[in-house]
Amino acid sequence: MSEGPSILFLKNKLQRYKGKTVSKVSGKAEVDGSLFTNSVLIDIQTYGKNFLFVFKDFFVAIEVRLVGNVLVNKRKKIAASFSFHFEENEINFYDSEISVKKGKPSDCFNFKIDISKAEFDADFILNEWQTNHFEESIGEALLNQNILAGVGPIIRTETLYHAKIHPDSLIKSIPEKKLIFLLKMVQDYAEEFLTLLKTDSVEKNALIFEKKNCPKDKTPIIIETVGSTKTYVCPKCQKLFK
Ligand SMILES: [Zn+2]
Description:
Layout: H1 4-13, E1 21-22, E2 24-26, E3 39-40, E4 43-47, E5 50-54, E6 58-64, E7 70-72, E8 82-85, E9 90-93, E10 96-102, H2 105-108, H3 122-132, H4 138-143, H5 153-162, H6 176-198, H7 202-205, E11 222-226, E12 229-233
Antiparallel strand pairs: 1-3, 2-8, 4-5, 5-6, 6-10, 7-9, 8-9, 11-12
The protein binds zinc ion.
């Protein structure tokens, strides 16, 4: 599963295609290809774990499950979900969800919930958690892209460890101060994550993600499955609020 900052990092590398004319699109996804012929790619943005390719009256949202599923001027043996073709280049997306939407990204998405956007609004998310998701575990809520866009397994593991909260804790039982701290951690760590990607050192700098022992008390780290994704927990440092 991908993380929002990884998508943002890759998006920044694709900026050279901004302003280029798309000669055609192809792929398995059911998309009206005639929309794109000779259209100028105005901008490339992200929203959570989606790439947004913006054209004059519409945009394409592409959700990739793994960053390795995006290839520039290279192909896998399997058919691509979607490909942009330019005069001399192509960008291929594999195992991805594609949707074409009318209007601008800001008409469709709430940027307040994107952990990597300047518009990120922790109060808005706190209110959403406490009003509509209070019976849920924090581990599940963190990965719900409709409430908080851009959190993946590494960000979830590391920020819950920093905030000393066990992923199975119920939102209604976690003190508000802790939730506020956790949201601050999410925003700060998303920024740090993007910086670490530049030196390919996210995994190296992670405190407990895919690690054997807690760096603080040497307690063996436990692997738990929350939702359908693995998370790492220090049973000594992280308190269970039930
Ligand atoms: Zn510990």
